[in-house]
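Lay summary

Proteins are chains of building blocks that fold into shapes. Our project writes down both the chain and a compact code for its shape. Here are two examples, one after the other.
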Amino acid sequence: MSDFVLLLIVLVEGFVTISAEILTMRQIAPVAGNSVVVTSLIIGVFLLFLAYGYRRGGEYQKNYMTILKRNFTKSAIWLGIGLSFAVIDLFFYYFQRYISSEILAALMAYLLLVTAPLVYILGQTVPITMELIKKAKTVGEVGGKILHLSTIGSFLGAVLTSLLLMNYLGVAWTIVINYLLLMLLAFVLFRDKKKDFVRGLVLCGVFVFVFVLNITLGNHMFVKTNAYTNYRVINQDNNKILALNNSLSSMVTREKKGFPYIEFIKRVMFQDLALTNKNILVLGAGGFTLSAEGSHGNRFVYVDIDKDMYSVVRNHVVYPVHGEFVAKDARDFLNSNHEKFDVIISDVYSHERSIPAHLLTQEYFIQIKQNLQPHGEAFFNIIGHPTLEDVFSKTMDNTIRSVFTNCMVIPLQYSNQMTNIIYVCRNSGDDPKKWFQLYWDDLNRATLDFFKLKNH
């Protein structure tokens, strides 16, 4: 086999390896979220078993072509089936139901059973191809060229998978394309007509199954997939529910009502505060349900990182979107925005229980305050325990109140269970670091202040 073909094999293998890593992160997001912890575990397992694959590949002493052919066949089947959303969804469902409900335990089990073998097999390609390159060259020159092309392939896999394939063709097609690339590598290595004919038939048969598992089933389950989201529209009792990444994101009834927490925010804005002729910024578009009934004379600006949100809602949920749409990350928008809003609503859940970590920090809430008009209102939808008995709920409460000193907090259900907690905070202009006024036995103006309140 010519050096050119061997180097091409290394290039394609580098592409598929990194593409598989990105696909793993993307496919895991609907069932485990995309937190830093989840991402770091995926990257860690990839690097660890890639290292062991390199080591194992260097230990082979003969039958290099046969081993490569076998590895590409195995990895194609493993990738095409193991990375499909249906298999991942079933794996996590049954693991959490029958073995452990801990999401990190299910994640590690999946990574060790599915991801690790795939990466271990693909990692063997680099040292094996180094043995097949003509020996007239120095070890350093061969190694440098192989690693150079493998890294170039990894670069292309990272960029093209996230920016091109998943966004324009969808996640399912990206998996199928990676399967075809590995199948092509196996075909390139075919030499034994009888044995390779059977191997080719197997790969073609599995391709049909992989196509049905990913494309056909995906088209049945989702109206669209991209680098961020699996979009699914559920029709239930004349209600349309938009599910994002396997999580119920928004609902619109026949009367254009939304989930209870949305209706609460709408009641506060349009009935209690009677807002009209106001500029309202919504961070996290969801299904644009805040203005589904109408804008009530206000201007809505929706911001969401997913550029396909608007078209999916218009085409599949089918109601007029009252408001402008900006496809940007929330913090990116707040950084570049030069307009002050009367109301800012932060509803940025990417999953039923998951908010991107950078949208939970004090700096994020400071940005929101800086984009608010004086005495403007900020609404935050947080899912937590109203009793604040866990670390997340208490720390979240502390973080918001460190920026907004005047907040009323209303849980939809007061219990020691996870529920929507709505923070309604006014931009009072108070310095959060100064001492608050207190009532003391020695100096108590409570009665006087109360009478001032009544006459206000």
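And here is the second example, written the same way.
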Amino acid sequence: MTEHLAGAGQELDDIRRYRISVLLVDDQPIIAEAVRRALATEDIDFHYCQDPTEAIKTATELKPTIILQDLVMPELDGLTMVRFYRANQDTSQVPIIVLSTKEEPEIKSKAFELGANDYLVKLPDKIELIARIRYHSQAYINQKQRDEAFLALEESQRRLAVANKILKKLSSMDGLTGVPNRRRFDEVLKQEWLRAIRHSTSISLIMIDIDFFKLFNDTYGHQGGDDCLKQVAKTLEKSVKRVTDMVARYGGEEFVVVLPETGTKGVLAVAETMRADVEAQHIPHENSKVTDHVTISLGVATAVPERGSREEDLIAAADQALYEAKNHGRNQVRSMGLNPADELHEEQSGGMSAI
């Protein structure tokens, strides 16, 4: 019921907004009375301004759908008033009918040149006066409605674009950790793979697994596991510095990092930083078979892709390197390249080694 009344109220406001409203600017009250009587039986609002110096202000406040402007007035003549109306933002589009005591072609021509919409010898026949008022007012109202509809459409399109942008962002983010999800990872890797082919540049991938995460969940519960995933994700994101690099959740306790234009040396440095940063968080993991806090294992792969090659091969190589890292004790980085030039010798320092 309330919504129905609110809707009815809005419709009433719309009707009032588009109601024909006349402003007569004339220094002779007798003319004003004659026009008022002519419009008295019509569904038209009538307003009168005798002082030409107040006409612009009055028109701005009343927002009429048409102005009847007397040609001969003290202080300011009608043509000057027409010029003022057209120069004012609030009245620049309002129809103007110039009222004159006689037909004067030169003055009529000048009135139209300055922006008047019509010219009448006063006082015109009642039927003609009403017809012209309705014609010009309705044209003005129609244009206002079209302008408002266009602005409303533009605003609607803007809001839709914003909503779509937000929706797209949400659909590409992992709900738990806040990092990009698997779907977004697949999109970005494909884009960067094709870019690397076009420019003959290297691309690297890091596959990451939280060590003994099932035991962590069994010990601290799923809420504890969720908190751990969020903290690890946040730490991994802080470890990458370039806007082109992306950390994503691959699934479960696995994360993946895409590093465009990064060779073996660079990706190994990033991977080791991630490993050390996560370990430095000292997230308790009393049942880990590595140490008493959370650690990660990382598999690294690098390639300079050629036409016809597949990004899936890079994923498989990084996954194989991760398997080796886990198979050799976890909490370490292992690397594999897809090109002969990328194959590494075994690293002796830190937690990094190549296969």
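What can we say about the second shape? The chain has a mean pLDDT of 88.
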